[in-house]
Task: structure prediction
Amino acid sequence: MQHKPIAITPRDGFDLLAVWEKDGKRWYLLQLARPQSAIALAQENPHTRLVFPTSIDPNCLSKQSRQ
Result:
């Protein structure tokens, strides 16, 4: 399965991004990092990692979509 490219780029103007990793049913914050480092970290394991701005918690997104 091919993964889509990351939608966040280093040129988006974020100072820090949150790298999240899925462990079972929940997402856990793996690391806060500068954009290039965060993207590289997520690309190491694209099946279980996501990159979001620090204000977004992927666990809350799941709950909102079910309501």
User: Anything to note?
Assistant: The chain has two helices and three strands. Residues 16-66 form one domain. The chain has a mean pLDDT of 84. Residues 32 and 48 are 16 Å apart (CA to CA).
